Amino acid sequence: MSTAANPDLNKRELRQQAASEQRMLLSLASPAVLAVTAIIIIPVGWLFFLSFLGSDGQFSLEHYSKMLQYKSYARTFITTFQVSILTTIICILIGYPLAYFLAMLPARMAGFFMLAVLLPFWTSLLVRTYAWLVLLQKNGILNDFAISAGLWDEPIKLVHNLTGTLIGMAHIMLPFLVLPLYSSMRKIERDLMHAASNLGATPVQAFWQVYFPLSRSGMVAGSLIVFVLCLGFYVTPAVLGGGRVVMVATQITAILENQFDWGAASALGVVLLVLTLITLYAATRLFKLDAALFGKA
Length: 297
What we know:
By secondary structure, this protein is mainly alpha-helical. The protein has two domains: 1-51; 72-294, Orthogonal Bundle (MetI-like fold), CATH 1.10.3720.10. Helices cover 77% and strands 0% of the residues. The chain contains 13 helices and no strands. Helix 3 packs across helix 9 and helix 7 packs across helix 9 (203-231).
């Protein structure tokens, strides 16, 4: 009996072919799956396991109950999200005009100026952080210049506080926003702006109604990268914050150094991971990030 005369046999063969293709694709992806499992899934699973171990080595929720009991943990999480959100906003305010400027330049000239954006990647993160410490301290270059220029009379405190932390983190995170945003802007056809002008739109209207929506995907992608990286940042808040800007990563380090309590440190990491996932999901639903990033309706 031919396959065409037996619909059930035809469907069964199609399912077998689909299953065979899936097994082949899975075999091709198996090295990447194993790498992700070894690098991400197993360590995160180990953190989950340690967070539920009490001081006696038995299953316990004591580490999570301490977070509800002591207000210092809540302040740490609030500070972490506050610094991450403010840093992301600062990077958007600085990075969007910079990316727009680069996108408007000819390709050869834009590549030259892009070196200035990529230059921080060639310098150690610790070196950049201590450079800001030298610039912003009370006897630093910035205060000396401002006093000599008459901008203010006495040295102002720009480090070991939230201000210095935001300045240092915005400088370090800015390339992570500019690169995807520049890539998105470079793909926008300039003729669209000309067409909008020919249809009667002013330059401001053409920008906000045509250019900005088309560049939104790059801005969203860069903002998410900056925000997520800021949540786990340690070096810059520890140096420029001077112990006054306590983020989750700083708190985890303090727990491990002073108490050597892997359970408490793991619980902090687990809660931060869960809060990050919840925030990203809420942002996806609230701002329709799926449509901005992937073109979904």
